[in-house]
């Protein structure tokens, strides 16, 4: 089906932060854009200072920084001055505990006020912050704590009991675990009494733009998860892209629904709106259609950043549900995490009175790279065009599906409509600076002066980009990037499983579901009872990224080197052409 572009009224174009895309791209310079931030007196830069302290020290001290809605709909607010004081206390507490500049401070929390205090306070102390997804099972939590060499973890009492207590002794670097709220447990003391006793005095370590600040883990197709390391200079990209791609301003009430354990929940769920001096809405509750409409209504949300899965779930409840709520304050809707189907863009226009603006970026990019802008027309189904200051191209792909590199050179795609691997020219401030303790993996992400994203896209004649798929086996499920290797490794730990192959299966709501194909060891029968046991086994260890479907297959396809061919499993599952089988093992 052909979808008509959605144009913008002159009034919207005139009021937008980015009013002339072409002229802004031509004139944009990251060095000049730095003037929007205050910086530190010695020339340094610190994310927490730009997000909190500079507002707390000025005219916005009494402006609401954080508006938290708990599960009972009770609202708690923190002004910029109050947030500055609490983050000062946490930074001071870290010093008292012997946690120093460069040490890794982890969070395993939902959307609660302590999350924002811990993240921003740790950045003030010069620590490296690593947020974890609260729906992870114990094994992904343990693995990431070990990989990053965690020194301190802040989690909730419930999450501690379910996911941390039994694996804590397996993390030799972990010196402290603090529990949010007022109640501790054994050698995991409560955070609140410790904050109350610590100093509220300004407590900012002077950090340089290139000092490490954020460690975000993202799954890989093979091997362990990758720890993408970002620096304090990333705050410049957070600030600029929020202004351009989200049209964010100081008087906005901003709601980002992303889980704080993912990069979106940090870059735009914490940092970006606060750098603009806006009010950040944080909802502790889980998705429920009436609840989300109620938050939009009661909190007067003006800019809403959410995920395609959530929008599709709202669509399933019908157009009439939104009519019972006052959404008149809402002026901009954006979506990220997975491809946004054209129907959702048009639904937003018809039901909410506003189209949904898709955008594209990754954990490694740290900030939005491609977007649909407030003053520009939307082409439903398109990711949009590159953010000013970001240079993007498409590269021809070789036999393995990844960018073709010959003699150290890449080969750009020039024809409109032709597919290629999306690549970005390094130089934007939020580009990751390393994979934690894995320089070879980091080097392999670049070729001939380009960062290789692993995503396949096409570009039309006007420079709009359209997502096609992944060049590798990564699974995009409900906005989460799931590594098949991690899921396969857990299934192989079950005594009945000999081999496993994991793929993403298309799903109308989640985008993709994780499906596992399993071959069994001798002596184990492929029964429904065992299938349910394996599903539960996966959920206990992996949590939200566990497989939703398991199929027994005694003859998984292998390459001649012995690897399970996920590509072939997916082709057979979807009834697609099997492609080149020259590397397929002839016999078992």
TrEMBL record:
Enzyme class, spelled out: ligase
One GO MF term attached to the UniProt entry: acetate-CoA ligase activity
Domain of life: Bacteria
UniProt xrefs under InterPro entries: AMP-bd_C, AMP-bd_C_sf, AMP-binding_CS, AMP-dep_synth/lig_dom, ANL_N_sf
GO annotation terms (biological process): acetyl-CoA biosynthetic process
Domain AMP-binding enzyme C-terminal, residue spans: 486-563
PROSITE patterns: AMP_BINDING
GO CC entries: cytosol
Alphabetical keyword list: Acetylation, ATP-binding, Ligase, Nucleotide-binding
Enzyme Commission code: 6.2.1.1
The AMP-dependent synthetase/ligase domain, residue ranges: 54-436
Pfam family, one: AMP-binding_C
Protein name: acetate--CoA ligase
């Amino acid at each position: 089906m052909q979808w008509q572009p959605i144009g913008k009224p002159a009034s919207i174009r005139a009021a937008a932060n980015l009013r002339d895309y072409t002229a802004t791209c031509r004139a944009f310079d990251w060095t000049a854009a730095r003037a929007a931030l205050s910086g530190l007196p010695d020339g340094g830069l610190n994310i927490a200072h730009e997000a909190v302290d500079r507002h707390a020290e000025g005219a916005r001290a009494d402006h609401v920084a954080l508006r938290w809605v708990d599960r009972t709909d009770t609202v708690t607010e923190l002004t910029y001055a109050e947030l500055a004081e609490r983050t000062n206390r946490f930074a001071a507490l870290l010093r008292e505990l012997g946690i120093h500049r460069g040490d890794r401070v982890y969070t395993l929390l939902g959307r609660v006020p302590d999350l924002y205090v811990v993240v921003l306070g740790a950045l003030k102390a010069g620590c490296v912050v690593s947020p974890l997804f609260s729906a992870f099972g114990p094994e992904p939590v343990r693995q990431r704590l070990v990989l990053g060499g965690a020194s301190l973890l802040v989690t909730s009492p419930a999450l501690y009991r379910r996911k941390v207590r039994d694996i804590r002794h397996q993390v030799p670097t972990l010196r402290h675990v603090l529990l949010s709220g007022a109640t501790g447990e054994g050698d995991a003391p409560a955070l609140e009494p410790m904050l109350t006793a610590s100093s509220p005095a300004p407590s900012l370590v002077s950090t340089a733009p290139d000092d490490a600040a954020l460690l975000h883990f993202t799954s890989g197709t093979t091997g362990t998860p990758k720890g993408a390391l970002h620096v304090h200079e990333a705050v410049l990209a957070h600030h600029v892209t929020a202004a351009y791609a989200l049209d964010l301003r100081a008087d906005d009430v901003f709601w980002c629904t992303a889980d704080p354990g993912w990069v979106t929940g940090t870059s735009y769920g914490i940092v970006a709106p606060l750098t603009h001096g806006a009010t950040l809405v944080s909802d502790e509750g889980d998705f429920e259609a009436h609840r989300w409409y109620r938050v939009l209504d009661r909190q007067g949300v003006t800019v809403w950043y959410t995920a395609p899965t959530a929008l599709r779930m709202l669509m399933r409840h019908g157009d009439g549900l939104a009519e019972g709520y006052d959404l008149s304050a809402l002026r901009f809707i954006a979506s990220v995490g997975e491809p946004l189907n054209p129907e959702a863009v048009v639904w937003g226009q018809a039901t909410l009175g506003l189209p949904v603006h898709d955008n594209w970026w990754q954990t490694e990019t740290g900030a939005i790279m491609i977007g649909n802008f407030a003053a520009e027309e939307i082409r439903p189904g398109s990711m949009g065009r590159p953010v000013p200051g970001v240079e993007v191209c498409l590269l021809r792909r070789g036999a393995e599906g990844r960018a073709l590199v010959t003699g150290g050179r890449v080969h750009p795609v020039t024809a409109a409509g032709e597919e290629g691997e999306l690549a970005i020219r390094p130089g934007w401030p939020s580009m990751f600076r390393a994979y934690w303790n894995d320089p070879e993996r980091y080097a392999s992400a670049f070729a001939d002066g380009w960062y290789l994203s692993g995503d396949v896209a096409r570009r039309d004649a006007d420079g709009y980009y359209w997502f096609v798929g992944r060049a590798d086996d990564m699974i995009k499920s409900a906005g989460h990037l799931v590594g098949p290797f991690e899921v396969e490794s857990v299934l192989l730990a079950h005594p009945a499983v000999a081999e496993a192959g994991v793929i993403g299966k298309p799903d109308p709501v989640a985008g993709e579901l994780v499906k596992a194909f399993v071959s069994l060891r001798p002596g184990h029968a492929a029964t429904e009872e065992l299938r349910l046991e394996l599903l539960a086994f996966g959920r206990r260890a992996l949590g939200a990224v566990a497989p939703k479907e398991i199929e027994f297959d005694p003859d998984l396809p292998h390459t001649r080197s012995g690897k399970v061919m996920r590509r072939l499993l997916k082709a057979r599952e979807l009834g697609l052409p099997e492609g080149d089988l020259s590397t397929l093992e002839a016999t078992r």
